[in-house]
Every structure is written in structure tokens, then in C-alpha cells.
Amino acid sequence: MAAATLGAARGFDAISMADIGAEAGIVGSGVYRHFDSKTAILVAMADRVMDRLMTGAAEIISSSPGDRQSLSRLVRDHIEVALTDRDALAVYHREVRTLAEEERRRLSRAQRHYIEEWVHLLAPLRPDLADGEVRLAVHAAIGAIQSTLFFRSGLAHDRLTELLAGMAHDCLGIAPDPVAPVSELALTN
């Protein structure tokens, strides 16, 4: 998405609808046929990524035979989304505070629901942890994955995926389960 690319490179406040249109190969006024404001573009980016994460989580949980496999597949899926939608996620993380309170709350609820999917899978795998500790482990794992939004390592996609998967599993305190390759997972979504 043109707005994500420009927003990640220059900052969302620094770009105009004309810039977005030019990046997309249309005139700036053409963008208004699809979005009534830059804020609407930001909300659409966030919704698209959040919908992708939620859809992926639902498919993974319904098709995996156990909690450990589901959690490992969630880790891999989140990595794939973070790497393929890096710019949109980076812009969202930087700009979420500029959204209207209603939009922030709605997106926050969706994020909490997504995190709860992880928590429900991790809790039985880590009975040694209190509820707050399970939640901390989930947030740490997701945070480790999303650290790539603001740091360009220069590592190849496959190597970065493997390193992030290992680090996220370390945060969760569970060994990775052999899972389908990320590319196969991404094809189902």
C-alpha cells in the first residue's frame, strides 16, 4: 500500500494525499474516491492487518491438533505478517495515538482478543506461570517479533524468520513445534 510505504519512510504526518496518489500511480484527488481522509487510510491499514492476524489465528487454532502446535503456528504467522506488512504495522504503531478515541478503543479490543488467543494456548503449556506471567510472556514474544518493524537487520527473510521464531519461543518458554512452512501458512490466508 502506497500510504504505508511513504508513511514508514517519511512519517505519516509528512505525506499528503497527493503524495499517496503519486506513489499509487494516480492523482491525489483519485485517492479521495476510496478514502475521505488520511486518517481513513490509517484505519484501513490497521483493520487490514488486524483482520489478517485474526483470520490467521482462527484458521490455525481450528486446524491444529494441539496447543503447542497452534502456538508455534501463531508465532510463524505473526512473523510472516510482521515481515510482509512491516510498513503498515510501523505506521500504525507510530500513529495510533492520532486516531479518534473510538477507533483506538475498537482496534485495542481487537488486539486484546488476538492476544487472548495466545494466552489461552500458552497457559496450559506453562502451568508453572501465574496468569500475569503468561500474559507477560505473550507480550514479550509478540514484542520480539514486532521489533523488526523499526529495525532493518539486512538478514534474508528465511533467516530472519527462523531467528524470530526461536526468540519468540524463548520468550514463551516453550520449544517450537515442527510446523508447516510460513509460506504454506500465508497461502491459506
Question: What is the strand and helix layout of this fold?
Answer:
Elements: H1 2-10, H2 17-24, H3 28-31, H4 38-63, H5 67-84, H6 86-95, H7 101-125, H8 131-146, H9 157-172, H10 182-187
Helix pairs in contact: 1-6, 4-5, 4-6, 4-7, 5-7, 5-8, 5-9, 7-8, 8-9
Explain how this protein is built.
The chain is an all-alpha fold and 189 residues long. The chain has one domain (38-187): Tetracycline Repressor, domain 2 (Orthogonal Bundle), CATH 1.10.357.10. It contains ten helices and no strands. It has helices at residues 2-10, 17-24, 28-31, 38-63, 67-84, 86-95, 101-125, 131-146, 157-172, 182-187. The longest helix has 26 residues, at 38-63. The radius of gyration is 18 Å and the shape is elongated. It starts with a helix and ends with a helix.
Index terms:
single chain, Tetracycline Repressor, domain 2, 10 helices
In the predicted model, the low-confidence regions spanning at least 5 consecutive residues are 180-189
**CATH fold description:** Tetracycline Repressor, domain 2
Mean pLDDT: 87
Number of contiguous helices: 10
Just name the CATH architecture. Answer: Orthogonal Bundle
For CATH, the homologous superfamily is named as: Tetracycline Repressor, domain 2
- Largest sheet composition: none
Series of secondary-structure elements, N-terminal to C-terminal: HHHHHHHHHH
> What is the gyration radius calculated from CA atoms?
18 Å
End-to-end gap:
18 Å
The secondary-structure class comes to mainly alpha
Main CATH class: Mainly Alpha
- Please count the beta strands (DSSP E, at least 2 residues each): 0
What level of helicity do the residues show?
Answer: over 70%
Strand content: under 5%
